[in-house]
Every structure is written in C-alpha cells, then in structure tokens.
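thought: fold this chain, then report.
action: predict
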Amino acid sequence: MYTDKVMENFRNPQNVGVVENANAKYTVGSPECGDIMEMSMRIEEDVIVDIKFRTFGCAAAIASSSMATQMLKGKTVDEAVKLKNTEVIDALGGLPPQKIHCSVLAEEAIRGAIEYYKNGRQE
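observation:
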C-alpha cells in the first residue's frame, strides 16, 4: 500500500517537534479522517532556517509532514508557498488515492504558517 519512502518517513520522521521561538505556525485538521497537523517555523530574512511538525494521524500524514519539512528547510518564503502537495507525493514515491488529502494538509499547514509570518512580522 505504501512506498518504501513513505514508510521510511513514517518510521523515522525528520523535524518532529516545535520550533523554539517560532515566528510562523499553523495547525490544520482533516474532518474526513481526523488527522491534525501543526507546522512551526523560524524564518529569518525570509528564509526558513528551522521547521518542525507535530502530526496526529496516519502513516501518510506523518510521512507527508516529514517530507514537506525536509523539502522546505533553507528555502525562501516565496519558494515555500509554491510547494504543491503533488511535489510532496512525488518525493514520497506516491500515495494511495485515499491518502492524497494528507499531502494537502501539509500544503495547507505550510501556507497557513507563512501567512501567519507575513501578517505578524514587524517591518
């Protein structure tokens, strides 16, 4: 059902936790399956210098969170908001059709955290 890459990111997720002194954060949930995903980031000069997640959910939700954080660390805010759930799916080697919504949660959490950063930042 799941690719080796999905299982690797589920069993050994990267960037788990909460970023200390986060200036970008967002929590999103899926009513269809009960997954909850929280992203926190530390952004300096519009670059994501640290990113972590906490996800309550299935293997696909945890793997999607893990992969998304790996893909974004060191990227600019502008690059991050362009990340599509399909890119996360591709990086994981695919997801079953009924689990695509897990990658959508990751995309939504990223965009929400960056919106938080943009609205809360002092210029």
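thought: worth noting. DSSP finds five helices and three strands in the chain.
final: tokens above.
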